[in-house]
Amino acid sequence: MVDQPEFDRQPPETGKLERLSPLVSRLIAPNAGPFTFTGTCTYIVGDRDLVVIDPGPDDAAHGERILKNIGTSRLAAILVTHTHRDHSPLAARLKSLTGAPIMGCGPHRAARALSEGEINPLDASSDHDYQPDRILDDGEGISFGSLEFETIATPGHTMNHLAFALKEEKALFSGDHVMGWSTSIVAPPDGAMRPYMDSLERLIARDDHIYYPGHGEAVKAPGRFVPQLLAHRRLRETSIAEAIRDGVETIPDLVKKLYSGLDPRLHGAAALSVFAHLEDLVARDIVRADESLSLKARFYPR
User: Is residue 3 predicted with pLDDT exceeding 70?
Assistant: First the structure.
C-alpha cells in the first residue's frame, strides 16, 4: 500500500507578516482562490540585506505591505521561481520603487509548440511581460550579504521553474513545484509530466530540512512528504493506464472516474493533469491516441 501525501490544509492568514524562522518571514497576497489557496506566499528573507521571493500578483496594496515590512532595510534582490501571474508581475513594481534587481527564472516558455488548432488554456495565467535582470542557472550559488542561496532547476509545473535553497537554514523555497496543501498543477503545453517527475526525484536526493512553498503552509518533513508525492503521481499514472485498459477512452471520462468528489471548478485543471500524464504515457509507448495528441483524442492500450 502506497502512503498518500499528508496535505496540510490549515489556511494561513492573508495580509499579515509572519516570522517563520530567524531569517524567513511570510506575507500572503490577497488573491485567494481554488488554485491559490489563501493566496500567494511572498517571502522576505534576511535580517539586514533582504531578499523578496515571489512578490506575487501586481497588486498595489500587497506591494505597499511588502515595502512597509522591509522598512529602512536594503532590498538586495527580488527572486522569482516562475512566470505565472500569481507569482511574478509585482517584481517590476518593486524594482521601480526600490532599484532592486529581478533575478531567477528566465522568460516564460512552453514545454512544446502548440499542435495545429490547439489553444493554450493557460496563456492568460502566464506573465509574458516578465523581464529579469539576471537569469540564474541550475546549481548557481548567489550571495546577498550573509545570505547564501543555491538555484535548483525544477521544471514541470512550468518549464522555467526554479527553487531556491537557503543554505544557512537548509530551507528550500519550492514555488509551485511542491506545496503542502495540494498537488501541483502540471498542464500542457506550459508544463510537462516527465520533467515534473524527474524534478521530484531530484529533490528527494537532497537533504533540505523544510520547504517554503508558493501557497499554503511550510512542508516540515520534506524527506517523507516528497517521496509520497512522487508515489501519488505514479499511482495516478497507473490508474489512468488501467482505466484505459478497462475501456475508458476520453479525458472527460477519465476525470469523472478518477476524481470523484472533486470541486467542479477544478475539473479543467484535472483534465489538463490527466492530459499531461497521457502525453508521457504515449511518449513511453504505454498507451496510444487515435489522432494527434490533444484533449479531444481517444486513448487505447498498446
Answer: no
Mean pLDDT of the chain: 94
Quick: pLDDT tens for 187-240: 999 999 999 999 999 999 999 999 999 999 999 999 999 999 999 999 999 999
CATH of the domain at 275: 1.10.10.10
For the stretch 153-156, contacts whose Cβ atoms lie closer than 8 Å and that sit 24 or more positions apart, written own/partner, are 153/199, 154/199, 154/202, 154/203, 155/111, 155/192, 155/195, 155/196, 155/199, 156/184, 156/186, 156/191, 156/192, 156/193, 156/195, 156/196, 156/197, 156/198, 156/199, 156/200
- What is the phi/psi pair of residue 249, to 5°? -110, -20
Q: State whether 141 and 223 are in the same domain.
A: yes
Q: Which domain holds residue 238?
A: 233-301
- Cα(94)–Cα(55) distance, rounded to whole angstroms? 8
Instruction: Tell me how many domains the chain contains.
Output: 2
Q: Quote the pLDDT of residue 7.
A: 87
Does the residue 224 lie in any domain?
Answer: yes
* Domain termination residue (choose one: 178, 204, 232): 232
